């Protein structure tokens, strides 16, 4: 008996969800999306909380498993679906990928996500997010000076790229100046040429409002 299609609980502007969208796309794993609107608080509903007590996105139902936390999900996908690996074979290179992943997923994204921004006065949120993202990406740029080829670590797409590109969605949203980050800008350009990344972009998600979708094309 064939397994049912995976279901990804996602939100169009969730950068953590985008990481998993990219990984699924890159590996050629077809899935169905279930939109959970963070702004409307749908992640705190009884139905979603029963599914995912952490009340966070993304959440992936696959192979009879329910998986939370984007990095853990990507690790699972790489172990169970080894074609087009997202981690290098060499242990040292794998460690470099994971270091970049952690620099983004631990040191940048949690400090500028919606839960944190909502604790600040509205007039301070954009400036705060810009500063956090700019400072964090400057560190990533220094890391890339030692690891980058065509992508974050060498010449193949890895989990590091799956994390970097969605973080750049937020960088652009909050007008972060990337002019002094040539490695980041070059990797973004190469990644955006790949269909796996293009299809994962927030503007191409079914739950993206039409006005935002239109603005992204201008």
UniProtKB/TrEMBL annotation:
Residues 90-210 form the GST C-terminal domain. InterPro entries: Glutathione-S-Trfase_C-like, Glutathione-S-Trfase_C_sf, Glutathione_S-Trfase, Glutathione_S-Trfase_N, GST_C, GST_Zeta, GST_Zeta_C, GST_Zeta_N. GO terms for cellular component: mitochondrion. Pfam families: GST_C_3, GST_N_2. Gene3D superfamilies: 1.20.1050.10, Glutaredoxin. Residues 4-85 form the GST N-terminal domain. One of its GO terms (molecular function) is glutathione transferase activity. GO terms for biological process: glutathione metabolic process; L-phenylalanine catabolic process. Belongs to the GST superfamily. Zeta family. This is Maleylacetoacetate isomerase.
